[in-house]
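In response to the reviewer comment on reproducibility (Comment 2.3), we provide here a single inverse folding case reported in full, input and output, so that an independent group could reproduce the run without further information from us. The structure tokens appear first.
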């Protein structure tokens, strides 16, 4: 019996990342270089993807920071 893929490990490409976090490509890569955004997984010489749950967790942490600073 084949195992089902773990949805928490789903990989998404840059357009889907930008749908979650509306930053430009260059801003996302600048944040990665600064260590402030999840790094992509290399799929091949010219293809990368992000772990969806990591991107969503990053976005949630930004929301939590906002709520903490407002309190």
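Designed residues, in position order:
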């Amino acid at each position: 019996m084949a195992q089902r893929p773990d949805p928490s490990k789903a990989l998404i490409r840059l357009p889907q990342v930008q749908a979650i976090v509306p930053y430009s490509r260059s801003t996302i890569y600048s944040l990665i270089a600064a260590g402030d955004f999840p790094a992509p997984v290399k799929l091949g010489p010219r293809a990368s993807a992000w772990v969806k749950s990591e991107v969503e967790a990053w976005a949630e942490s930004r929301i939590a920071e906002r709520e903490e600073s407002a309190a």
